[in-house]
Structures are given as structure tokens and as C-alpha cells.
Amino acid sequence: MAVAIAACTSVVTVAEAVPATAAEPGYFAAQRVGERPPMGWNSWNRFGCAINEDLVRGAADALVSSGMKDAGYQYINIDDCWAEQNRTAEGKLEPSHERFPHGIKTLADYVHGLGLKLGIYTSAGTQTCQKTMPGALDHEEADAQSFADWGVDYLKYDNCNNQGRPAVERYTKMGDAIKKTGRPMIYALCEWGENKPWTWGRDAGAQLWRTTGDISDNWGSMTGILDQQVGLEKFAGPGGWNDPDMLEVGNGGMTDTEYRSHFALWALLNAPLLAGNDLPAMSPATKAILENNDVIALDQDWAGTQGHKLRDDGDTEVWAKPMSDGSAAVVLFNRGPASTTISTTAAELGLEGGTFRVRDLWTGTETETAGTLRDAVASHDSSVFRIWPSTHPSAAPMTTLALPAPDYVPADRPLTTTLQVTNDGSTPITQLRATVATPVGWQLDGPGTFTVPAVPPGTSWQQQITFKPVAPGGERVRLAAKADYSTTWGRRALGSEGTSPLVSRPPSGTTALSKAPWMSSDNGWGPAERGTSNGESQPGDGHRITIAGVGYDDGIGAHAPSSVRVYVGASCTSVGALVGMDDENSGGSVGFRILGDGKELAATGIMHPGDKAHALSAQLAGVQVLELSVTDAGDGNTNDHADWANATITC
Questions:
Q1: pLDDT tens per residue across span 589-640
Q2: Confidence class of residue 513 from pLDDT cuts 50, 70 and 90?
Q3: Are 475 and 439 contacting, i.e. CB atoms less than 8 angstroms apart?
Q4: Is 217 in the active site?
Q5: pTM of the complete model
Q6: Which of 79, 80, 153, 214 is catalytic?
Q7: CA distance to 162, 337, 358, 426, 438, per residue, from 354 (Å)
Q8: Do residues 480 and 494 lie in contact, with contact meaning Cβ atoms separated by under 8 Å?
Q9: Residue 245 among the catalytic residues
Q10: Catalytic pick from 79, 80, 158, 301?
């Protein structure tokens, strides 16, 4: 990520009863500190250093009035930039006179009065990450006592400006200092996963430990962090949790669909659920995601068994989690660019039986299956189910309507897909009526409405659908279908919708890829930038591309992990660029790859800051989709700013 970013995910708390959710009264029982993953809000992801006591009070008020408190959110956590630049003459931290004129104790009293808890932040270094205030290195006991005296309940302890001193020593010292105060606090290590804190965090006195660098509000960052959680599940459990960083839900860098996936996967991982959005301005869609009691229940299940990746099929993944009541939770996750059908089975989830009750945790709909869990999942979306063994069919059969949207749609070719209805239940569906909608600018080749007498259990009905281009326009093509049918439990209805990018071949000659249409772009920190370096997390904040002291006027600025995909339609002959790490950052390491239709065509070895630009090129004969990929070289993606200088295609 970029330098001096403070967004670690954690802070410190008192052992009070957590409010019950509407879905499961009494679910959040009284518990010791850190017995379950903490839930709350942190100021950093949305506001950074632009904080004051009024903003924090407003967030606390909104946590209550919005219903988030009732859903289980407890903590109001202040991140970096809350203190004066220097300590007092007695060596103590002092709240900012301008931003927190009434002090932290007064703010804590206000938050406690709402039935909430207050968290605070510092770093295990000489200064915090933004260098606006002193860190706690060699002041651990004094600072921990100040926090206790103020009524702080949660400490997020960052890793900036640490003077190269051993992490275990620094973090254990603060853990001991917190214990010495006698005040129960959640102690959250924000060590970025550099020294495998999951192996020693508990011994240091912590209940949370960050497993990665900071999250950014984009798809590439979220999925990159998710990938780094695989294999860590054995280190988590009641009283000690892996922390993949705070939630970005509602901050605007991803779609609501992507935020649903973000939230569901974090809940399945037993991650701390710390919202980071503007609570008073929360949209209905954001509220629905953050306050979904069924999904929250996965995170807060008393057994504390962390979910794990059950199956990886490339663009589609199955994640699962055993629940304390003998049920299982599953996330069918589509990280690919096109809608697709994903399935698993009760047996694969470790459940035995002939029939199973299934609850869709996004819609609340309950169905029954003979053992297969299946759903049509849109690009970047996730279907989340909870499944229980059952002795007999207790609901309408689990039925899937699918109309897959392809990876891309060439504007000069017919679009062909398959409409499919699948019955995975134990009873038939009858009187099926299915209809497809015709995209704007296209013509349906054949009928668009179909009637089917019955679809027996364990079978599918399908029909090939073709649309011919008439006057395609816009950036994407929308495919949609609906179906209704009868069951023993009454009439049911389903809908399916997806979109695909509308693409055209590049013009003849040489085209700068910074100016070409992109099918998609994912980036580990902010968006991939056209014509400049990556810069920080906001669009358009890059600089002139500079590699090893040499400047370039054009190119693409990326941050690992990164992918930029361009449709070339088998009409281009070659691609080339000068690649290297941008001089705007001094750390990190990356690898560059050129792919054609998913196959590697060319690659560099590992590159470091200061390495001279490397000429990377590939032949594109027959290639439909070109991809420029940047990897983190296997050591995490902190500071991995990577440039594709003067990147062009020849067609």
C-alpha cells in the first residue's frame, strides 16, 4: 500500500453484555473480553485525520439510531490524529486541544452513556503512522494507564516508526502494560502480519492480530487480502481472532454487490466487523448489508470456528464454516467477470442426511434440497446459505434460474447463452413459465417465453437463447430472465440478471493502452491510473511515471495485486511496455505478467525499487483478451507501486 497509512483494524474494550439481535434474541450473551470478534466502527477508512469529538459523538449517536447497536455493534474507535504532537511535561499523551477540547474521558463517558464502548489508537513506535502524535514505544505503561483512566475499552496498536525493534518484544510490553492497569480492554495488534502474529499474538496479551497490510476501498485490495487468509483458520478461536482489516462497506469504491461479498466473507472468517463508513449518511443498501442479522450470526457464533476456503475453481470459490448448532454456512463466491452457476453439496460441507433445510441469508428465503446447494451468482457477487439436516422436505424445493452473462460481448457478433432452471429439491416443480428480456440494441432470434409442465427433482430444463446485434450501444449489455412455477408449498418466482462489457476491436495501428477501453481493472490500492503513477487511494492522484530516475510521459500506474484487461479480438499482433517499480515509493517488490486469454505470454522476475525499467513484450496472434497483471512477488503488497510505462498495442 501507500506509505504512512494508518488503517489497521483494531483498538480496546470492557466486558459488558452485547445486545441481542432481532434474529436471535439473547444470541450475544455476556462474555469476557474478545470472546467473540468485536463489532463496531472506526474513523479511519472514511475520515482519516479529519476527525474531532463532534464527529465521534455523531458516529456513536448514529450507531444507536440506525439500529446497528441492536445488531451487535458496540465499539466507537478513534484512529490516528487524536492527540497533540508532543507529550506533556510529565510525559503523558494529551488529546488535541483543537479537535478534542473536552478530552477523551468526557467522550468515553458520552459513549458509555449510550451503552457503547470507546476505542483508541496509537503505534508501537516513536510516532504514529501519520506522524501527527507520539507513539507508545518506551511509554507503554504511562499510555496504557492514561487509556484506562479515560475509560478506554479497546486499543488498536499500529506498527509505524518502530525503530526496527523486535515486534514480539514491543507488542508484549504493551500487552503487559494493559494487564497492569486492571481495566479490561480489547488489545488489537496492527502489525500487518509481518512477523506472523497469529503464532504469538495471544501470548502477547492480544485478542486480535492483523494478518495483512491495510485494506483499500476497491475490489483488488479486498480479494488480495482475502487470499492471504487461507490457512490461518487454525490460529483463530474464542478470545483470539485473525484480523483481515476493517470493513469498507459503504465508502463508495466498490459496488453494493462487491460490498455484500466483502461483508459475507469477513463474517465467515470470524473477522472483527468494524464499519468504516459515514454512519449518519448511510444508504439503505449499506444499512441492509451491515445490519443483516443472519450474516452477523456467522461471525458471532459462540463456537468461534473460523470459516475456510473449501474449494477453488479459479474464478469461482466455495467457502464454508461449521456452526455450533450442527448446521453449516457456505459462501458461493464469484470473483470472475461474468455471471455463473456455482454449486456444492451437503456432503462436501460435512453434513449427513437425505434432505436439508436451506436459508438464503441475503433474502431470508427458506427452501429444501436433497443435498445440492446451487445458485446463479453474478460477477463479484456471493450467495450465502445456511444449511441444516432435516428428516423430511419442509419447504419448496431449492430451484435455480440461470441466464449466464458472458465475460464480454463483441458488438459485431450474435450473443448466445443458455436459459436453465434446475430443481435440487426432493419434490417436483410444475407449471413453469420462463421469460427472457431482449437487451437494448439487440434482436431475439426465436421465442422469448417458454412453458414447461414439470421439472422433476434432481433435473434441469434448459433452452439456448440467441440475440442478434442491431444497434448495440453503451458500455455493457444487460441479460435478464424471470420464471414462476408451482410447488406443494404454493407458487414461487425467481429472477436472474447479469451484465457483460460490450467490446469492439481496437483500431489499426499503434494504440496507447492508457487511452484504450478497458474491459475491467482491479488494483490493490486505489484505481489503476491512466498516464500517471498509482499515487494514493483516490482516482487521479498519481504523478509522472518515474522508474529508476527516468521519467515517462505515458503508461499505466498500478499497485499489486493488479489486473487490467483489454479486448483485442484476435486483431492485434503485439503488446509492449517498459515495466518497473515507481520511484514514488521506496519499498516493496513486484512481478509483471502479460497474459493472453488467461495464458502467460511473458513475465519478469521479481523487481525491486531502483531496478531499471525492463522491456516486456509479447506476440498477440489469435488472442481475444489481453491482460496486464502485477503480482506482489509473494511477500505482501505493501508499497507495491508498479508502472507499465509507454504501454502500447499494435493492431
A1: 999 999 999 999 999 999 999 999 999 999 999 999 999 999 988 877 888 9
A2: very high
A3: no
A4: no
A5: 0.90
A6: 214
A7: 57, 35, 13, 9, 40
A8: no
A9: no
A10: 158
